[in-house]
Every structure is written in structure tokens, then in C-alpha cells.
């Protein structure tokens, strides 16, 4: 019996050690981002430092997030506007002061916009705004948080790559796949598709450039989800999507560095 108890304690200790200590999620005030916050807090071994970022933490659209934060000391709600470099820099400084030399284990680029419209209907301003949010934002966020990701690699002492060491997971879409144009007539969203293809390429470039730093990069398709962005006719609810994505994230190794996967862990053609 004593050996069984020791085994259970050891297993729990290993599982706790395998959890990322610190996680940052952008666009955490609603939809998939808010559901990620919920599920990470409800996990058997909750994330110890969870940075939930959004554009207006004190606004009405962040009330649900603030309610969660009041109930859980592990959450820090931080302002981050993906289209504002000054905001990103300030957020990185704030997070850095809180994680210290332990660094940031997992950065989830979740914030994004999905305007509709064909190529002919999309104005230059619309395209620029979509690109700034969905591509430039994640690029600037990666660059500003890179020192904290490198600190996490140094602090981990673990071999290989994983979200428990240092990783950047960006939420992309099947619509960013050039081989998935069969759905264009149903949902054109030209600027969104183009920006997500750009995000995919950004991830591949970062994965190649920073593999020597042992920082893992991956893009995930959450499925067609019933959110404000996905609409009521979508296939699945946020809890199912997020549960799947978190499971996929937990399984990532250097073999999936630069991969394009769905919420079930299946590879998606570029």
C-alpha cells in the first residue's frame, strides 16, 4: 500500500512538472481565448501563471474574463492590442517582470479578425487592417516575447521541444490552406484567407530560424466553431475545440515543429 501511495505521489509530481508554468493567451476575453483560460484553470494541475491578454481589459467585452480573474489568483489580465507595437512592448515588459528568469513557456497567438468579402469587395484599408491584426501582430508579439521564451528554455533543463519548455502556438484556419479553396464560394473572406496563409508562413519561417533556440512553433486549426467569428451554424462548440487543441498542444514535440494541425492533431495540407 505504501508503495502504491508513493507511486501515485510520484506520478502526480511528474504530471505537475510536465505542465507549462507560464502561459500567455492573446484575445483571451471572448470565444476560444476565454474558453482556453477556463479549461487551463480547471485542469487537474492548473497553470501557475496565466496571462490573459485583450485590447480593453476594463471594457464590457472583458467582464467574463475579469470575473474569472477575481476568482483565481493565477490569472493576470494584461492589456495587449495586437495592432499596437507600443502595447505589445509594454505587455512584454509587464510579463517579464512577473515571470523573471523562469521565462514564458507557452505563447498562444489567438487574437484575430475574420472580415468577409471577395477580392473585388475588399478595400486596401480592409486588407491592411486584417494583415496588421492577423500577421503583423503575431510577428511583433513573437519578437517582443522572444527573450522570455529563451529564458524559459534556459530554465527548463529539459531536452527536445515542448510547450512545457518554450513554444509559440498560433491559431490559424483551414481557410488559410491553398489546397482548401473548395469552400471559397461558401465563405470567400479573401483578406482573412490571405492573412492566415501569411500567418502560416510566418510560423514556418520562425520555426526554421529559431529551432537552434529549441523554441517550438506550430499553427492549429480550431475547427469550425460556434463563436462570434464562426457563427451559429458552425460544427462544434468552443469547449470541444479547445479541449482538442489543448490536448494537441500537450503532445507536441520537435517532430511537429513548424506543423499545421487541426484540433484533433491531424495534419492539414498547406
UniProtKB/TrEMBL annotation:
InterPro entries to which the protein is assigned, alphabetical: Fungal_SecMetab_SDRs, NAD(P)-bd_dom_sf, SDR_fam
One protein family per Pfam: adh_short
Organism whose genome encodes this protein: Etheostoma spectabile
GO MF, any single term: oxidoreductase activity
SUPFAM superfamilies in alphabetical order: NAD(P)-binding Rossmann-fold domains
The protein, known as: C-factor
One of the record's GO cellular component terms: cytoplasm
Family recorded in the similarity comment: Belongs to the short-chain dehydrogenases/reductases (SDR) family.
Amino acid at each position: 500500500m505504501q508503495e502504491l501511495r508513493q507511486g501515485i505521489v510520484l506520478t502526480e509530481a511528474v504530471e505537475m512538472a510536465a505542465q507549462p508554468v507560464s502561459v500567455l493567451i492573446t484575445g483571451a476575453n471572448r470565444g476560444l481565448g476565454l474558453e482556453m483560460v477556463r479549461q487551463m484553470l480547471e485542469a487537474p494541475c492548473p497553470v501557475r501563471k496565466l496571462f490573459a491578454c485583450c485590447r480593453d481589459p476594463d471594457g464590457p467585452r472583458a467582464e467574463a474574463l475579469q470575473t474569472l480573474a477575481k476568482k483565481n489568483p493565477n490569472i493576470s489580465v494584461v492589456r495587449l492590442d495586437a495592432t499596437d507595437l507600443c502595447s505589445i512592448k509594454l505587455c512584454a515588459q509587464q510579463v517579464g517582470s512577473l515571470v523573471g528568469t523562469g521565462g514564458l513557456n507557452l505563447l498562444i497567438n489567438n487574437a484575430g479578425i475574420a472580415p468577409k468579402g471577395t477580392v473585388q469587395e475588399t478595400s486596401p484599408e480592409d486588407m491592411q487592417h486584417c494583415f496588421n491584426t492577423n500577421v503583423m501582430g503575431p510577428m511583433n508579439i513573437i519578437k517582443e516575447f522572444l527573450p522570455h521564451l529563451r529564458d524559459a528554455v534556459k530554465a527548463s533543463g529539459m531536452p527536445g521541444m515542448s510547450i512545457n519548455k518554450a513554444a509559440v502556438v498560433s491559431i490559424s484556419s483551414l481557410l488559410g490552406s491553398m489546397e482548401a479553396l473548395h469552400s471559397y464560394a461558401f465563405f470567400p473572406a479573401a483578406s482573412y484567407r490571405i492573412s492566415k496563409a501569411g500567418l502560416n508562413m510566418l510560423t514556418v519561417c520562425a520555426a526554421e530560424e529559431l529551432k537552434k533556440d529549441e523554441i517550438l512553433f506550430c499553427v492549429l486549426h480550431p475547427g469550425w466553431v460556434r463563436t462570434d467569428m464562426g457563427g451559429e451554424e458552425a460544427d462544434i462548440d468552443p469547449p470541444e475545440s479547445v479541449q482538442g487543441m489543448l490536448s494537441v498542444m500537450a503532445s507536441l514535440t520537435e517532430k511537429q515543429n513548424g506543423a499545421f494541425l487541426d484540433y484533433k492533431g491531424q495534419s492539414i495540407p498547406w
